[in-house]
Amino acid sequence: MRQFPISRRFATGLIAGAAAVAAVFGAPFGVDGASTAQAQDLKVGFIYVGPIGDHGWSYRHNEGRLSIEKALGDKVATSYVESVSEGADAERVITQLASSGHNLIFTTSFGYMNPTLKVAKKFPNVKFEHATGYKRVDNLSTYSGRFYEGRYVQGVIAGMMTKTNVAGYVASFPIPEVVRGINSFIRGMRSVNPDATVKVVWVNSWYDPGKEGDAAKALIDQGADIISQHTDSPAPLQTAENRGVLGFGQASDMIKFAPKAQLTAIVDDWGPYYIQQAKAVLDGTWESMDTWAGLKEGMVAMAPFTNMPDDVAAKAQETLDMIKSGALHPFQGPVVNQAGEVVAEEGTVLDDGVLLGMNYYVEGVEGSLPK
Amino acid sequence: MIRLESKGEPSRLFSYLSPVLAMVLTVGTGALLFELMGKPAGPSLYAYFIQPFTTLYGASELGVKATPLILIGLGLSVGFRANVWNIGAEGQLTLGAIAGGALALAFYEVETPLLLPAMMIAGVLGGMAWAAIPAFLRVKFNANEILVSLMLTYVALLLLSYLVHGPLRDPDGFNFPESRLFHDSATMPTLISGTRLHWGAVLAVLAAGAIWLMLSRSMLGFQLKILGDAPRAARFAGYREPKLVWFSLLLSGGLAGLAGALEVSGTVGQLIPTISPGYGFTAIIVAFLGRLHPVGVVIGGLTMALTYIGGETAQIEIGLPAAVTGLFQGVLLFYLLACDVLINYRLRFGRRLAIG
Amino acid sequence: MDALTLLLLSVMTAATPLLLAALGELITEKSGVLNLGVEGMMIVGAVCAFAVSVSTGNAAAGIAAGAVAGAAMALIFGFLTLTMLANQVATGLALTIFGIGLSALIGKGYVGIAVAPLAKLHIPLLSDIPLLGPILFGQDALVYLSLLSVLAVYWFMKRTRAGLVLRAVGDSHEAAHAIGYSVIRIRYLAVLFGGAMAGLAGAYLSLAYTPLWAENMTAGRGWIALALVVFSTWRPGRLLAGAYLFGGITILQLHAQSAGWGVPSQIMSMLPYLATILVLVIISGDRAKIRLNAPACLGKVFHPAQ
User: Fold this and answer.
1) Where does the sequence pass through the membrane (chain B) (predicted)?
2) In a 3-state reduction of DSSP, which class is residue A336?
């Protein structure tokens, strides 16, 4: 007769330990699933590229979803699918959303562009909204935030706060959105500090806290005393806090993670747009359009200006107000690229088409952008 | 508490019954889990297991999702029989996608029926080339293929990222990281209109048949089995291990590469930074769910596809978060894997103790 | 602190989670069990460590919770593969899927919460020695634990009877069983140790490396740890070298980018993987020696004959 291979005492101890752990977690174990009631006027579907617990991009879109529920109450039901790969899975999930009674579907990552387009053509009565893309049809709108406007404000702050005249930028992938942000940041910085430069490290991930933090350390080690980031986690900002330098939050206000280091943060606020579009469908006024909204519309918001002297805060606020009022454009001429060529003359502004596909650095960025 | 008693020889009955038992246990556990989450058990289970079959589109998607899993799982199962541990099928798939996709882009202007077969061959060769690296390093330098194939997966994904951010980027695409959309002559035709089920599914079934024949009828199949079960005996019998290592890796790499080429030409239609949601890793599970048998791999691939699609459906219909569907998928796999013990053993609950 | 010290500190931070998890897996594999679920155990360890640390305000309790949670995950694996004789490779992968789901569920209420980073040791005078001071005497507890574990595992395997038994079980379970050792029991212990160490690695990530919880924050480090065990040819000293090599090149390529090297970042990011392969090829020359170290029964099912 052979017994269970681990002794009784040993197993009991383990189970007691596991029970203790379970007890600690008992409290927060609630799940906030999506509401999926049937009889609503409007069913809104969302598809996210990451988990909603990433505390970054997908998290903010989910906050937007929740704000629709809050604002429109019983009139809407929402559902979502998270962590959907941008490959073959996307088209299936969007199709499933469209064929299961959703009248409005938000696809919240660039990689969903072609799948969304394909499904939109198959479901002409369903309205689609694709974030950060450029392909539209009658029932497919596009929308995105002018995050570069916020980055210009951050640049102004960085330019005034830096002592080494070097800022570090933790970047994800060399796509126009990120390159545009880097350029806007250094232009803001140089507008108040002509000697400033920015160093860039690409981590080739939107989301890897450890690596993002390591990149921030490398930048700080090489003289950067301001850290900006275009990746999702608070890790670069936390690193800045630990190393005693300054930084900016990304997507959310991250002051909790860096009470002494966060100067401000760009906050993605999709809620108002989502509510507006959901209402438009309810009212029958929805039309296909392109929305590229910024500070003025509130899709891009700034967290409070903290950890800086009053004059810097005042200058930041002034810059913010000027961008809102249209008196200032982050890419108003002269815009000079890294090679020293003028790409926008004095008195002109880089148009949205150029900004959308931006694939070169402006002056002040160190290193070269791989082609 | 639990002990196992050998049945002497494998039970044919239980080789069919054990998955059924696993499903019963899964449904019971699932019901409990969903109720705990505050979701109704019945509709949740329906959404997970039944709803995907209720529409032609849903059912066809099972085939779409299972095709790469089956192709890769088939190749891996051959290697696993011989204790050749290719953990890097994801990378080989990626190289296949790159090779097939690059060919489609190179002949972007050309309309020819030869393009599709050429893309498939390029995919196979791409996957083989990537798998040849661990094969060569193991045979020549004794470097362990688990490490080499796994590390090369990351390299392959970065290579793809580099290519779609740079050389293979759509020239009219505002510098976004994606290639042009392939033309019709580079797109795998579908089997049923209105669905995405393409000829790749047929290839997967053919591959299963071919591998079944090879394993059961050829000397090579026998040698692979001996090498896995009794490597010393295999050496004694004069089987050349390097040859079998090469064969296993090239076969699994080639099939993974084919899966990659099919994925870009059949369902995605262009090169993008993420082509596979981890098919190369999931296929390892598929190979073992299928008990390393070609027919089993086909069933395992379909089962695994169902768990993913069912998970998506449950998110949409019931509002279960992906965390719960992932947890449930894990539980289901635990049961499926554990119940196979009943084929060779019977359980005895000995010595009535409160807890063992 | 000077630049070199800072660089070395970054490398140590990057290497520590890999080292912790890989040491655990090394012991597991030495007993003849291949557990591919390191990533899953690590992520559950990370979330439990974070949750307990936040709930109790006690980092030590958090670290302990991480280890217990990792071991609890390993217990599931052990039950399935050792008692129910399920296939180890597939079960390990399923464990990772399970763990990612479970961790997300547990962590629901902890996203966006900050916790103070794990305290760094500071010994007056000693920690202030240039270059070596902060490295030798200014780290957090888990860094020391990882290094001590290397010594402990080395000592355990080379010098203790239990270590000998562990190796015997991994090399030939039939023979070990015949001599009268309880193969299954020993393997359970080895699997649990592996889980606890993976849990500690997770705790290091969520409490020290980047003190936060977010889903999937392990970002594939469990897989790298698995590869490093192979790299080490099951020797703790080489494991240490491997973890620091991988961590070191990861950090160096970030520095090179920051310094403005014009190489595409994707190519730079490939370097740690390529370097590991290259070094493996160089050190794998001695076939006989590797065969001697490799647990012969790795991944094989054992059921004692009636």
Assistant:
1) 12-34, 62-80, 92-108, 114-137, 146-164, 197-215, 244-262, 268-288, 295-311, 323-343
2) strand
Residues in chain C: 306
Chain A contacts in chain B segment 262-301 (CB below 8 A)? 263, 267-270, 272-278
Q: Which of B80, B147, B344 sits opposite C227 (nearest CB)?
A: B147
Res A19: pLDDT: 42
- Answer whether B68's CB lies under 8 Å from B93's CB: yes
- Alpha-helical runs (H) found in chain B: 12-36, 41-45, 56-81, 89-106, 115-141, 145-165, 200-217, 219-229, 231-236, 241-262, 279-289, 294-318, 322-339, 341-344
Q: What is the ipTM of this complex?
A: 0.93
Can you say how many angstroms the Cα of residue C12 is from the centroid of all Cα atoms in its chain?
Answer: 14
Per-position DSSP letters for B193-261, written without gaps between them: TTS--BTHHHHHHHHHHHHHHHHHHSHHHHHHHHHHH-HHHHHHTT--HHHHHHHHHHHHHHHHHHHHH
Compare CB distances from C80 to B80, B284, B337 and report the shortest one's residue: B337
CB contact under 8 A, B263 and A34: no
The pLDDT score that the predictor gives to residue B46 is 94
List, in order, residues 6 or more apart from C268 with CB less than 8 Å away: A202, C253, C256, C257, C261
Of B141, B165, B338, the CB nearest to C284: B141
Q: With residue A265 as reference, give the H or E element that holds it.
A: strand A262-268
Per-residue model confidence (pLDDT) at position A30: 36
pLDDT digits (tens, 9 = 90+) for A53-89: 888 899 999 999 999 999 998 899 999 999 999 989 9
Q: Which amino acid is at A262?
A: Q
Cβ distance C214 to A56 less than 8 Å, yes or no, reads yes
Give residue C34's pLDDT band: very low, low, confident or very high (50, 70, 90).
very high
Q: Which amino acid is at B170?
A: D
pLDDT-based confidence at B4, cuts 50/70/90?
confident
How far apart CA B168 and CA B153 sit, in angstroms, is 20
Rounded Cα distance, A33 and B44, in Å: 13
Q: Answer yes or no: is A25 within a domain.
A: no
If one counts the domains in chain B, the total is 1
Confirm whether B220 is domain-assigned.
Answer: yes
Task: Find the largest Cα–Cα distance for chain A.
Answer: 91
Q: Examine the domain organization and report whether A107 and A165 are in the same domain.
A: no
pLDDT, one tens digit per residue, over C212-236 is 999 999 999 999 999 999 999 999 9
* Three-class DSSP category at B320: coil
Best residue in C96, C249, C273 for a mutation probing chain B (most B CBs within 10 Å): C273
pLDDT for residue C137:
72
Residue ranges per structural domain of chain C? 16-293
Phi, psi (deg, nearest 5) at residue B3: -135, 160
Helix axes B89-106, B241-262, angle to 10 degrees: 50
pTM score over 0.95: no
Which CATH architecture best describes the domain C16-293?
Orthogonal Bundle (1.10)
Q: Does B94 touch chain C (CB under 8 A)?
A: no
Same structural domain, A83 and A155: no
The answer on A185 and A47 residing in a single domain is: no
**Nearest C-alpha neighbor of B162 from the set A169, C219, A173:** A173
Pairing of strands A76-81, A262-268: unpaired
B108 phi/psi in degrees, rounded to 5:
-60, -35
The continuous run of DSSP H or E covering A251 comes out as: strand A246-251
Asked if B165 has any chain A CB less than 8 Å from its own CB, the reply is yes
Q: What's the DSSP call for residue C208?
A: I
Instruction: Output DSSP code: residue A279.
Output: H
Give the minimum alpha-carbon distance from A44 to chain C in angstroms, rounded to a whole number: 23
Query: How many beta-carbon contacts under 8 Å exist across B and C?
Result: 142
| Buried/exposed B91-111: b ≥16 CB within 10 Å, e otherwise | bbbbbbbbbbbbbbbebeeee
Integer Cα distance of C99 and C250 in angstroms: 26
